[in-house]
Design goal:
Blueprint (H helix, E strand, L loop, with lengths): L2 H26 L6 E5 L7 H6 L25 H8 L19 E3 L16 H21 L7 H6 L1 E5 L2 H10 L4 H24 L4 E5 L8 H6 L14 H24 L4 E5 L1 H10 L14 E2 L19 E2 L16 H12 L4 E2 L11
Helix pairs in contact: 3-11, 4-7, 6-7, 7-9, 10-11
Length: 366
């Protein structure tokens, strides 16, 4: 073989070697993080604004975004801190029709949403059906090469988050005049919808699930303000006992469902996250985290003890804003401030409150 032939042979072998190395790297490298989220106002990044046109402007969003984004809070939500931690862009709402960015995933959460249909037309079942449509259409467009859409591999490696149930509990509580028994009887029907959502997402390729339980609803300034009560109705730190007892009953059932689903869906990872414990500790030890009165809303009307009045809720005429929102746990009587969302997100990201114990980023490690 002459030198020219040998050189061509060597170059060919070199290209084959490079191709094999690159192929091996691509096969062994971890998938990129993607989040597909379902829920209510805890994680709504603009869905209710896009879906219903409900005006959610300033002062909501004043701390970080400096404009209304559809988030119910002064700034970032827990899911926004998750995205920052994973170096993702913030999730666009599925319903956003103007320049959405779905490269980091998609958000189906809508404020006011429930597991069962009632007031908001975007209950959990509808959100899952929207996901199915989104997936089918994304793959259809991706195969045509017409844009940067999530492919089949992306949907399979994505993390499916669910955070819903608090509105179901509250609506039943109001209907029962804050009576435990009638609400407790309804909890299995709420949980059945979450279980069905996990099963349907699994049928459409989901294998990674991150399920938040519900928080201590009885600690919300709104609940303490609108329901007359005595000290006997409150627990040791001043939260409504009946609200929190129902939240704990719901959470026990949700934990059991996650445990059951792990035995049935053996190739899926299903993580249960105890948000209740994190938030209750935050309210209990508020001074440790630099917060002031945990039962006072920052944005509202009425002053102490709760600064909440239905006639002048946050953003309405007559309402006012506290001097330092970073020292308030609750923004508007219901929703958490950016400062407290940061504390909660940091605790979740530690992995200590998840079952099985797992950090968020480990879903995409090789």
């Amino acid at each position: 073989m002459d030198n020219a032939g040998f050189s061509k042979h060597l170059i060919l072998l070199l290209w084959i070697w490079i191709f094999l190395v690159m192929f091996a790297i691509s096969e062994c490298s971890p998938d990129r993080p993607l989040i597909i989220n379902f829920g209510d106002s805890n994680s709504d990044t603009g869905g209710v604004l896009a879906g219903t046109g409900l005006p959610i402007g300033l002062p909501h969003g004043m701390t970080f975004f400096h404009r209304g984004t559809g988030r119910l809070g002064d700034g970032r939500l827990i899911i926004d801190f998750f995205c920052e931690h994973l170096k993702l862009s913030y999730l666009s709402p599925y319903l956003d029709s103007l320049a959405p960015n779905f490269t980091s995933g998609v958000n189906f959460a809508v404020s006011g949403a429930m597991t069962l249909p009632q007031f908001i037309p975007f209950n959990l079942d509808v959100q899952v059906r929207q996901f199915i449509r989104f997936k089918n259409r994304s793959i259809e467009l991706q195969t045509t090469g017409s844009g940067n859409f999530i492919d089949e591999k992306g949907f399979r490696s994505a993390l499916y988050m669910i955070d819903i149930g608090q509105n179901d509990l509250l609506m039943e509580l109001y209907a029962s005049n804050l009576t435990y028994g009638p609400v407790a009887k309804q909890i299995p029907s709420f949980l059945a919808e979450i279980k069905l959502a996990i099963q349907n997402i699994y049928l459409y390729g989901g294998r990674k699930f991150w399920i938040h339980n519900t928080g201590p609803l009885g600690c919300a300034p709104k609940e303490l303000a609108i329901h007359p009560h005595t000290k006997n109705d409150l627990d040791r730190i001043g939260c409504f006992r009946v609200h929190n007892d129902l939240a704990k009953a719901f959470n026990k059932g949700l934990r059991d469902i996650c445990k059951e689903m792990r035995t049935v869906l053996k190739d899926a990872t299903i993580v249960y996250v105890d948000v209740y414990s994190i938030k209750y500790k935050l309210v209990t030890n508020y001074k440790k985290y630099g917060f002031e009165d945990p039962f006072m809303a920052c944005c509202g009307y009425g002053g102490p003890p709760n600064n909440y009045n239905r006639k002048a809720t946050c953003g309405q005429p007559g309402s006012s804003i506290c001097n330092n929102v970073s020292q308030s746990i609750i923004w508007d009587g219901v929703h958490y401030s950016e400062a407290s969302n940061r504390v909660v997100a940091t605790s979740i990201l530690s992995g200590h409150y998840s079952t099985p114990q797992m950090k968020l980023e480990n879903f995409w490690k090789a």
